[in-house]
Specification:
The chain is α/β, with parallel strands linked by helices and 174 residues long. The chain is built from 9 helices and 4 strands, in the order H-E-H-H-E-H-E-H-E-H-H-H-H.
Length: 174
């Protein structure tokens, strides 16, 4: 990470997504990079380990931001001092996710919880199979055909698409 950061003159956001790479970036690693490498400015945290995330928020420099990497954890992470989310559902329901984040940032946790609860069925549904299959299908259903997925993934089945459309209607994004 340090070598990459030193090779570019850009701000860098670390991605800790153990579900994708099978390895968790430990808090000690994130904190060392946050303190020692000037252009490493944030982390997208999707470890699901709230103690780890809390430690990073509390022990990182004030200029370092912690973003949720899991839509369902966004409110919890923001309550601990996180900056927001690098979102999946934000591709499908950007205004609704923006509302949730803005309410949480303003300290209106009741309003943010209501916004979260309203979107939660879609948050779950988008991960009913491997990402980004259902995200791409949701965008297609919304009138934004972004193309299919690459192998070894396959496009959503008609049954998956029908169920996704039902959930999207239930939460008011279709």
């Amino acid at each position: 990470y340090t070598a990459v950061a030193k090779a570019v003159n850009l701000p860098i956001i670390l991605y800790n997504i153990p579900g994708r790479c099978v390895v968790n970036m430990e808090a000690d690693t994130t904190l060392r990079l946050a303190h020692d490498v000037e252009n490493i400015v944030a982390v997208k945290e999707a470890s699901g380990n709230m103690e780890q995330i809390k430690r990073i928020i509390e022990e990182s420099p004030d200029t370092f931001q912690v973003y949720s990497g899991d839509d369902e954890a966004t409110l919890s992470i923001m309550k601990m001092g996180g900056a927001g989310v690098i979102s999946t559902i934000g591709n499908v329901a950007p205004a609704r996710m923006k509302e949730l984040v803005e309410l949480a940032a303003a300290g209106d946790y009741d309003g943010a919880q209501a916004a979260h609860n309203a979107l939660q069925p879609l948050m779950k549904e988008l991960f009913a199979t491997s990402n980004p299959i259902l995200v791409k299908e949701a965008l297609k259903l919304s009138g934004f055909p972004v193309g299919g997925v690459r192998l070894p993934l396959v496009d959503a089945t008609p049954e998956q698409s029908e169920h996704l459309a039902q959930v999207m209607r239930e939460v008011g994004v279709l």
